[in-house]
Amino acid sequence: MTSTSQLTLPKWLAWVAGAWAILLAAIFLGLSFGSSGFGGFDTIVNWLLGQVTEQEANIITQARLPRVLMAMAVGCALGTGGAVFQSVLRNPLADPYILGISGGAALGGSLALTLSVATVGVFVGSVQLGAFAGAMVALAAMVAVAKWVPGGRMSTYVLLLAGVIFNAFASAVIMFLKAVVTAQKAQELLFYLMGTLAIEGVSWVESLVVLVLISTVTGIVWMFAKDLNVSTLGDEAAMTLGVDVPKVRRTTVVLTSLAVALAVAYTGLIGFVGLVVPHGVRLVAGPDHRLLIPLCALFGAAFVVLSDVVARASFIMTATTLPVGVVTAFVGAPLFAYFLARHLRGHRD
Amino acid sequence: MIELKHVSASYGETKVLDAVDWRLDGGELCVVVGPNGAGKSTLLKVACGLLPASGALLDGESVASLAPKTRAQKVTLVHQQTESVFDYTCLDFVLMGAHARSGRFSFDSDADVAKAEEHLGTMGVGHLAARPFTSISGGESQRVVLARTLMTQAPCWLLDEPTASLDPKHQIASLDLVRRHVDADPSHCAAVILHDLNLAARYADRVTIVHDGKVAHDGPVADVLTSDTLSQIYDVEIVPVPYDGGTLFVTK
């Protein structure tokens, strides 16, 4: 075959194996280094051989492992979510937050955080629960809008606008909350909204459960990869070629939204991952969702794990651990500008 | 094969088709003509189930009730414009034509890729296989879309102005392809929307004139494409001029 765009099993395996290798390297770094002085390239080997103190073992299993697993989970959710939202909405600038998930999660989490604990009868809510509930309310609102709007291209615009309006309203409420709470609460709120993996009290088992749930969702969405390829040609063209467009759109958007909601409920809003990772992957591996989705999941996970390594390492310079969202934004914004410039140059030529 | 029985269709409050009866049988190439906004594109959308309407039948079954893949294996529609948001190559684009016949998850087989390359070659755009679909011209993209139509293997083709962006040579080549498709098997058929009445007269077995959401005239070329009918429908004087054993239509 003369063409280079043919996706064969060996080509797919080579890409996925390469992405796994990069993710494993990121995990290795994530477990080996942190804000404490303990660490080094032989850390993991020593830990596996039982040649570390109990305190050092605790640093790995109680501090670093939950963070690395949660970083993988959120990176996987945001990377996959970005790829799916950009395809389904046929908008390269879409990210997993665009339909109001961010506004809902931020508002729910902020309410829980500013009210400390929301007590309703015997039910005691937490920040995570509040954020997840907020994201679900946003998702339910979007599903209702989608059902209300008649089909066709217009429905995509209406959904996007509804998401933007919802996010703007949520921001307004959050600003109000920040204005009326104490300075310390406002600081906590700021950290949460910037996205952080400093998730106190979350065990590695809990992080692993979140990762498994999100990976499962990614696997299910991957089954729609060929439908998503054809869907990017537009609703009518996709339907003509045999795609059940409403079903594919509903299933993939709801599932990825659930995954993103679960992730951001723990970590807050980590920005740019859902934009940069899918664009970067498309640039090097092409737009085919059979490859794009697993690569976005793996590279998204690696990107957040590595960003968190940098965030923790910043402790040496800043005497405080930066929120990981600051690092992803620092790296992501210029990367995204580069992708955009490259895309525009390609079209001008 | 396709039958519309008293079909009406609307976009919101606007009625676009009004109680239309129309059919397309195997072995037939029907050219659909009519003024802008008459309802020609809607007729084809209803015929392939893209716009659900009661009374639209495909092989005797309600086309809207068919599973999307089953429907796509029987009938395919080519739109006036085809867009691609991401940089799929022309080869990827043509391979998508096999979507309805492929499994939920499969890789591109050598046989499918060879077929897609052959179809691109048939349309004279084999050299574009590795180029992004977004980077080629309008005329080239129409030929790539026709290559994708070949890839579908659907017996019934519905084509909405497939020659709009093509130069005369490629207009002829594209309509020759449609003609060959129809003649290849008695179950094959095609309905093509054209504005060029000379091409319509040259290729049609039957002509349908759509006007104000209704089928105004339907029948053999000689019966339908007359000076009186065309002048009345288009509100401009059109005269047939004998030329080289055929007829040319000229506006006055």
Order of helices and strands of chain B: EEEHEEHEHHHEHEHEEHHEE
Give the beta-strand count of chain B.
Answer: 12
Strand arrangement, major sheet of chain A: 1-2
* Broad structural category of chain B: alpha/beta
Distance between the termini of chain A: 28 Å
Task: List the keywords.
A: mainly alpha; ABC transporter involved in vitamin B12 uptake, BtuC; 2 strands; 1% strand; globular; B: 252 residues; alpha/beta; Rossmann fold; six-stranded mixed sheet; 9 helices
Structure description:
Chain A is mainly α. Chain A has helices at 9-32, 43-48, 54-88, 101-114, 127-148, 153-180, 183-194, 204-222, 225-231, 235-240, 245-267, 273-285, 289-313, 315-318, 324-348, and strands at 119-120, 123-124. Chain A has one domain: Orthogonal Bundle (ABC transporter involved in vitamin B12 uptake, BtuC), CATH 1.10.3470.10. Chain A contains 15 helices and 2 strands. Chain A has a two-stranded antiparallel sheet with strand order 1-2. In chain A, β1 (119-120) and β2 (123-124) form a beta hairpin. The radius of gyration of chain A is 21 Å and the shape is globular. Chain B has one domain (2-81, 154-251): 3-Layer(aba) Sandwich (Rossmann fold). Helix content of chain B is 34%, strand content 27%. Chain B has helices at 40-47, 68-74, 90-95, 110-122, 138-152, 168-184, 197-203, 221-224, 227-234; strands at 2-11, 14-24, 29-33, 56-58, 61-62, 75-78, 156-160, 189-193, 206-211, 214-219, 238-243, 246-251. Chain B has a 6-stranded mixed sheet, with helices on both faces. Classes of the chains: A mainly alpha (349), B alpha/beta (252). The A-B interface holds A 1-9, 12, 87, 90-92, 150, 222-223, 225-226, 229-230, 232-234, 236-237, 239-244, 282, 286-288, 290, 346-347 and B 12, 45, 48, 50, 67-69, 71-73, 76-79, 82-89, 91-92, 96-97, 99-100, 102, 104-108, 110, 113-114, 117, 129-130, 134-135, 152.
